[in-house]
């Protein structure tokens, strides 16, 4: 309560309460970032170009995080490839006649092409991997702002130290606060509608590069169904910007979380104890190695030997007094057996926790195709659900925010502008078609194929009489990513129209999020 009492504005008081809860995470996050992602500073304590890995002795976690981050990027958002598809909401496939199906296909083809071109034109593939790395530890955050007609989308991976999320009643993160410093000269550029007080404007004019403390608030308003957006100067509680958004500019996502907590707990945070132990073990190994190479020595103080002038190098001649012991090595009371600390087991455990199950290494000997297939199935059974948790908090909000920008009147005349949807302005929802989702589609198609083969072994004639083979082959090809444009139109006798595509998408069971 004490933190909130320093403000009179209700929104800033709400920000202060959320910030007090968020700061409870600083200690554990600072330690985890230092060990697993040192170059992605969590609290801004290091200056640009600083040596941030001075305390790193074992790089297993760093390499695993980078590998997993790159894999997630390629599985969810493969660069220069289409990774989402659009379908009309509240419209059954049978409602589309041939003319309607062609109109929808034409619209979808143009909309998807413009959407993905706008994504690839932006800094999306530079910023999103940074946020994915944050999600592997705790919580990732991406800020999506409207750009210019030539470059409509602007993405910013916000450092976790600045993100102050607030969980809604439904368990999702809708309200986000951000406290940060920005150069005064950037305020007018970031927010052209900002109402800057006269004294602050004079200070910015005198020192344009001086940092100005700001508080950014994006608050979900359930009564109006919009996001209230505001930017404050906390000193003086002056509101610079006040807007309302239909879609939130924030995409805040987590791979996992604990009951009753708002911040996420990613796989790296779960493996923090092993990471710290492996790093300390490697440090002790290196210290022991340095002692083993140079040794610890003792010498009699006979007035002849000066330890300050001794250099332990090959071929060195060290003087000694007649009858003295001279320079002798000091025998350690015990031996440090590093093999007992099981460093290899720690490193394997860190890799498994962050990367997920892996296939046997090449040097492990010959493996049968059946064993590799089973291991691959086990790998997908763990890896796919863990990664698909990101779809509800990352993929859908991101696509809907980008669509809202590309369809806004400000983008009129832009080569990336998407026009109104057909069928009387009906809503649509995005369906992911990324490689990660394809894994599930392919697995389902293979299961259906296996069931068909088993049925044919029992009674091939009856099975073939029951199965709509054309529709089955179309579904099988679609599940494996075969383009529908390469297929001939369905035979009139089937009368299925676009039904195979709708059935295939419906089996994914993905939640819907719509946009006008």
Given the helix and strand composition, which structural class is it?
alpha+beta
Shape field: flat
Sheet having the most strands: 5 strands, antiparallel
The end-to-end distance, rounded to whole angstroms, is 41 Å
Q: Can you count the beta strands?
A: 12
The low-confidence parts are 493-516
Query: How many helical elements?
Result: 16
Radius of gyration: 30 Å
Spatial arrangement of strands, main beta sheet: 4-5-6-7-8
Q: SSE order in H/E notation?
A: HHHEHHEEEEHHEEEEHHEEHHHHEHHH
Q: Classify the helix fraction into a percent range.
A: 40-55%
Summed over residues and divided by their number, the pLDDT gives a mean of 82
Strand proportion, as a percent range, falls in: 5-15%
Structure description:
The structure is a single chain. With 516 residues, the chain is α+β, with helices and mostly antiparallel strands. 44% of the residues lie in helices and 15% in strands. It has 16 helices and 12 strands. The strands form 4 sheets. The protein has a 5-stranded antiparallel β-sheet with strand order 4-5-6-7-8. A 3-stranded antiparallel β-sheet has the order 3-2-9. A hairpin with a 4-residue loop joins strand 6 and strand 7 (226-233). Helix 3 (60-76) packs across helix 5 and helix 9 packs antiparallel against helix 10 (343-355). The longest helix has 32 residues, at 435-466. The radius of gyration is 30 Å and the shape is flat. The protein starts with 9 loop residues before the first helix and ends in a 9-residue tail after the last helix. Residues 493-516 have low confidence and may be disordered.
């Amino acid at each position: 309560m004490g933190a909130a009492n320093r403000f009179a504005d209700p929104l800033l008081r709400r920000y202060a309460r959320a910030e007090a809860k968020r700061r409870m995470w600083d200690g554990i996050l600072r330690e985890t970032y230092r060990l697993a992602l040192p170059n992605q500073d969590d609290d801004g304590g290091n200056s640009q170009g600083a040596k941030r890995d001075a305390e790193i002795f074992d790089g297993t976690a760093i390499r695993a995080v980078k590998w997993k981050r790159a894999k997630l990027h390629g599985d969810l958002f493969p660069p220069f490839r289409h990774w989402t598809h659009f379908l009309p909401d509240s419209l059954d496939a049978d409602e589309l006649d041939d003319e309607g199906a062609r109109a929808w296909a034409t619209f979808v083809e143009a909309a998807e092409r413009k959407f993905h071109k706008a994504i690839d034109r932006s800094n999306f593939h530079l910023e999103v991997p940074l946020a994915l790395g944050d999600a592997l530890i705790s919580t990732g955050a991406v800020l999506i702002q409207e750009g210019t007609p030539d470059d409509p989308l602007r993405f910013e991976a916000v450092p976790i130290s600045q993100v102050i999320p607030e969980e809604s009643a439904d368990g999702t993160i809708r309200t986000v606060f951000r406290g940060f410093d920005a150069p005064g000269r950037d305020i007018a550029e970031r927010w052209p509608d900002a109402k800057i007080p006269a004294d602050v404007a004079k200070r910015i004019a005198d020192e344009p590069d001086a940092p100005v403390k700001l508080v950014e608030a994006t608050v979900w308003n359930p009564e109006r169904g919009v996001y209230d957006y505001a930017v404050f100067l906390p000193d003086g509680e002056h509101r610079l910007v006040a807007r309302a958004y239909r879609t939130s500019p924030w995409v805040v996502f987590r791979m996992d979380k604990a009951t009753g907590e708002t911040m996420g707990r990613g796989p790296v945070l779960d493996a923090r104890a092993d990471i710290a132990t492996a790093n300390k073990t490697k440090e002790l190994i290196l210290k022991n190695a340095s002692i083993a190479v140079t040794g610890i020595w003792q010498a009699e103080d006979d007035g002849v030997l000066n330890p300050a002038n001794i250099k332990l190098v090959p071929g060195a001649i060290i003087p000694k007094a007649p009858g003295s012991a001279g320079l002798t090595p000091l025998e350690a009371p015990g031996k440090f057996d590093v093999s007992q600390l099981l460093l290899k087991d720690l490193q394997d455990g860190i890799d498994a926790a962050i990367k997920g199950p892996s296939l046997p290494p090449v040097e492990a000997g010959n493996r049968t195709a059946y064993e590799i297939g089973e291991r691959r199935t086990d790998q997908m059974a763990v890896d796919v659900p863990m990664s698909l948790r990101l779809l509800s908090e990352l993929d859908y909000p991101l696509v809907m925010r980008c669509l809202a920008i590309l369809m806004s009147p400000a983008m009129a005349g832009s080569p990336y502008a998407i026009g109104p949807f057909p069928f009387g302005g009906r809503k649509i929802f995005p369906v992911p078609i990324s490689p990660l989702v394809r894994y599930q589609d392919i697995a389902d198609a293979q299961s259906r194929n296996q069931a068909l083969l088993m049925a044919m072994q029992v009674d091939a004639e009856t099975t073939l009489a029951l199965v709509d083979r054309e529709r089955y082959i179309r579904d099988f090809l679609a599940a494996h990513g075969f383009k529908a444009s390469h297929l001939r139109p369905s035979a009139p006798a089937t009368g299925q129209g676009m039904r195979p595509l709708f059935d295939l998408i419906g089996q994914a069971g993905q939640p819907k999020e719509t946009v006008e």
